[in-house]
Queue: 4 jobs
Job 1
Amino acid sequence: GYLIEKARPLPMRHDRGDITLTPKGDGTLVVWESEGHIEIPILGDLVLDRLAESRGAGSFDRFLYSIESA
């Protein structure tokens, strides 16, 4: 696993992260799990946590696509 110790520009508490690679047919199944929280009162819970989850997942998908396309 991994742990993000410092994040910018928003204050974030990262509890844990794991990336699991499993052979599947001719390829690899990649599962990314990450738990944390943007530590800004009200906005963190209502808006920023969901936004960070969406953007993080999109970035990871693009990263995997770039590897697959190489």
Job 2
Amino acid sequence: STRNGASQIATGGDIITAVDGQPITEGADLSRAVIDKRIGDTLRLTVQRGGQTRDVTVNLQAFTIPNNQQ
């Protein structure tokens, strides 16, 4: 998740604290960090998981909605 003030946005249990070294303190920060990225770009996320901080490399992929959910 990413923190938005006192709340968090769920992202699988992790807390995203930075993208490519840029701090993420609210949901809008995360949006700004990826808005100009393209499919295939690689990002370095700094996350808190289980009380530990770690860097994770992710590759952006297209999101598709299953036909039965459109």
Job 3
Amino acid sequence: IQDFMFRKEFVTNKMEEEVHQNLRLHGVDLYHGLATLDDPNHVRVIGTKEEVLETDFILIATGSYPTHPE
């Protein structure tokens, strides 16, 4: 089971790295924290500091776990 857990951790980390690299490649900024939508074009993010972001597009990624259909 130790080999399985090592492989799982390796694959999970590799997938996360690839997602972050793809986001950087496309110029996507990441913000971590608690967010509220002030209006259709403004997001208030409270993380290490509070920021109000103005944008045309908002992507909310709450986290997920990979699933593989049987």
Job 4
Amino acid sequence: GQPVLDLSYTEDSTALADANFVLTRTGDVVEANDGRGSPIAQEKLHTMLALAQQGVAHLCDLQNQAIQAQ
């Protein structure tokens, strides 16, 4: 399947893999875990991590915009 961010419950419950990442603002990994308890190929894990890092960067940008707008 294709890695995506922020799945709905229905999508998440049928996903082949589920990875959860806690990242710093700079994209460093604080915590990572597989919500399914099954192996994830290293290439797939790297792809999911890169997607998570993009998502965190986007959220940080939105937060900065909201702060500057006040």
